[in-house]
Specification:
Chain lengths: ~350, ~375
């Protein structure tokens, strides 16, 4: 899977769109709790949020690899919109034959410990349980959830306006993370899930979305650090001329490169049609990107000195998201445990054959 | 973005490389008596057997003993051999850097003579860069060549030369006299020779390493006469040639698989149902390894496209050695053990060897600091 021309073109056009419309002012405003509606509209008009859907469902049959690449660009610009969530919600709803709509969507559950139970009630359904910290739930026009039905997992899709009022919360990047409690909540429709669509699949693809967005945010942090070091003069020369600073920037660039490569390793697995491989490659991706982010944030701030610690300067837009996304859809230790457990279960002699995949 | 980003495009191995992997694994199975942890032993018979398979000089032109196969196929052979702990040192330096540099800068006669012999596993090369007062600062070489009738007379000392005691030839880096106006150019006069290590005036003395083993050497050159036809490239072009040789050296996928068998041993010891802390620690190492490997395959892809991934290679080497050095650190936390070199228990030997070998990994082939300097230059900082 070399980078395809279509992907490059998509990335360039997404880059230009965010460059123009996702400025620091827009992100700052969104962080006060006002939805970035203009930005969402522009992104929505590109067709990217629902592009993975079949053409019959209003999509473009696009490659997931391309859409994840677009998430990296969104991560680079700290885009305060539920792009990943809408992509995933669209995927689940359309796979299950449920309604989609064309506004921003969210998806859940996003936490492994959440329990959502669906029971029969005449011709309809009753939903009980909690969906914690759903991204942008209070702004979403539609909420798509995977729940435990009487005979296994099912999907439900509800209009945001009819959902229970969310308890508002936010991550440290002030992105809304709202909790919905369902108490005998009535639904007229629920749908069985086709093969390949499951809560586990949602969780890992969500983890990959965060890992990919993080790789973009790391590119931004690195770009800012390298640029700043060349402009900031101390002791009569740019601080980029000091070896100690150069070595820090070199390590920062290494960690950024690793994060992009690790996210790509996860993305590569999406086209292979092998759920087991997808699970452990994404586990590797979220683990490695999380580790890289921890070190890279430290170095990007170190290079910037005090200015990087201010609200006025942009570095914090990237690093606060990195510190948030690192924990979402499973932290790096959580996924590392899955990697370790998987390979220990397979045995030492299978480590290399599994890794080489042939 | 203004800042250069190092590119590691995701690459999948082509079918011919995947097909070759099975063949390599069968060959390894056949030779498993010589495989082992962290061996890197000099084993000419093994190298010749690999030569017969066509697995040395794989990407070189057939005209010079090569096999015109892709960098992906070469990548697969090397990674399988490293993972198995194959004894490669009789041909590895020649395959990785000396042969490619001869093909790039050598005369027709040199290419026709040396490269087929390297590819057959019959001629062992070593490096000839470091000196007592010129380690990371290779340009500071004090070894001097003087033009004389029919050749050159060379005096100087090389140090840290791995495998010189087993090698037939070295690519010697030294300097020739320069004009006054070039006196401030540190790279002026740099010249490389194909040095026959059996020549009169050459003395090779072992330098025993901290494991008590003889891998590297000191080479004394006293009035050594090298004939004209063994000058490599051009007089004064040595710095360019050396940069190219180092690029060949660093782009090889051999910087994160040295302790692979120890990682396997740790997985074995953890058993099929590890506790959380063990699973996390091993999962982190495996994730690092998988990512390094994908970056390394990506470099093979850049080489296949004819690119020169010097910065990317420096990134992978620095990250790869960091990962390798973490293996004994994690091991002693998960599975404490008193290290013993000649232990009956295979793990005790591994932890002894890996602990003691770890420091060299971020020194040989360019120190960590030098690599980060290269990366900083790639970022436009110097």
């Amino acid at each position: 899977m070399a980078i395809r021309d279509e992907t490059r073109m998509l990335l360039e056009s997404m880059g230009r769109l965010f460059e123009n419309l996702c400025t620091k002012q827009v992100v700052d405003a969104a962080e006060t709790g006002v939805f970035a509606a203009d930005l969402w509209r522009a992104v929505s008009e590109t067709g990217v949020p629902l592009a993975a859907l079949p053409e019959s469902a209003g999509g473009a049959d696009a490659e997931w690899a391309d859409l994840y690449a677009a998430l990296r660009v969104a991560g680079r610009f700290s885009a305060p919109i539920p792009l990943a969530e809408t992509m995933l919600a669209g995927w689940i709803a359309s796979s299950a034959g449920l309604e989609i709509g064309d506004g921003p969507m969210t998806v859940g559950p996003v936490r492994a410990s959440d329990k959502l139970t669906l029971t029969r009630d005449g011709n309809g359904w009753r939903l009980n349980g909690t969906a914690s910290r759903l991204p942008y739930a209070s702004h979403a026009e539609r909420i798509v959830l995977i729940v435990d039905g009487p005979d296994g997992e099912m999907a439900v899709s509800l209009e945001g306006s009819t959902a229970p009022t969310p308890a508002k919360g936010k991550n440290i990047a002030n992105e809304s993370r709202d909790t919905l409690v369902f108490d005998n909540f009535h639904l007229s429709t629920a749908a069985a899930l086709p093969k390949g669509v499951s809560r586990a699949a949602l969780y890992r693809r969500g983890a990959l979305a965060r890992a990919t967005m993080m790789s973009g945010a790391l590119e931004r942090a690195m770009d800012l650090a390298v640029t700043y070091a060349q402009e900031r003069v101390q002791f009569g020369r740019p601080i980029s001329k000091f070896q100690a600073v150069q070595q820090n920037l070199a390590v920062l660039s290494e960690q950024t490169a690793v994060a992009v490569a690790a996210a790509n390793l996860g993305i590569q697995s999406l086209s292979q049609g092998d759920e087991e491989r997808e699970e452990f490659q994404i586990a590797i991706a979220k683990t490695r990107v999380g580790e890289a982010a921890t070190l890279a944030c430290e170095l990007a701030h170190q290079v910037h000195g005090a200015i990087g610690f201010t609200k006025e300067y942009s570095l914090q837009l990237a690093t606060r998201r990195l510190w948030s996304w690192r924990e979402e859809f499973g932290s790096d230790p959580e996924w590392a445990a899955k990697v370790g457990t998987y390979f220990c279960g397979k045995g030492a002699d299978n480590l290399w054959p599994i890794m080489t995949g042939d | 973005m203004a800042t250069p980003m190092f590119r590691f495009d995701p690459v999948e191995l082509p079918p011919e490389a995947i097909k070759l992997r099975g063949e390599v694994r069968a060959f390894i199975e056949e030779h498993k008596d010589v495989m082992g942890f962290s061996r890197g032993e000099h084993n000419p018979e093994f190298s010749q057997a690999m030569g017969k398979k066509g697995w040395i000089g794989m990407t070189w032109p057939k005209q010079y003993g090569g096999h015109e196969r892709s960098s992906f196929e070469r990548y697969v052979v090397i990674e399988e051999m490293l993972v198995a702990g194959a004894p490669l040192s009789a041909h590895y330096t020649g395959d990785r850097q000396s042969g490619p540099n001869i093909l790039r800068f050598g005369t027709e006669e040199q290419k026709s003579y040396f490269c087929p012999k390297i590819a057959a596993g019959e001629l062992t090369f070593c490096i000839g860069m470091s000196e007592p007062n010129s380690g990371s600062d290779v340009a500071g070489t004090r070894t001097r060549a003087v033009k004389v009738e029919g050749g050159y007379r060379i005096n100087g000392t090389k140090l840290w030369t791995s495998n010189a005691h087993n090698a037939d030839y070295a690519i010697l880096f030294c300097k020739m006299a320069v004009d006054e106006e070039q006196a401030n150019d540190r790279h002026a006069g740099a010249t490389q020779f194909l040095l026959d290590l059996k020549l009169p005036g050459i003395e090779i003395r072992p330098v025993i390493n901290l494991l008590g083993e003889h891998h590297f050497n000191e080479i004394f050159l006293t009035d050594v006469f090298v004939p004209d036809h063994l000058l490599l490239g051009k007089e004064g072009n040595g710095w360019n040639q050396l940069t190219s040789e180092l690029a060949f050296e660093r782009s090889a996928p051999d910087r994160f698989l040295v302790f692979f068998q120890m990682l396997q041993q740790m997985i074995r010891m953890a058993g099929p149902n590890p506790d959380k802390a063990t699973a996390v620690a091993l999962g982190k190492l495996i994730s690092q390894l998988a990512t390094l490997r994908s970056m390394s395959v990506s470099i093979a892809g850049m080489l296949a496209e004819g690119l020169q991934p010097n910065n990317e290679s420096a990134v992978v080497k620095d990250l790869g050695t960091r990962y390798e050095q973490d293996i004994p650190v994690v091991a002693r936390q998960l599975f404490p053990s008193e290290p013993e070199l000649e232990a009956i228990d295979v793990y005790e030997t591994m932890i002894a060897r890996s602990t003691m070998n770890a420091p060299r990994l971020s020194i040989q082939g360019g120190t960590r600091e030098i690599l980060r300097g290269i990366i900083a230059r790639g970022l436009g900082l110097r």
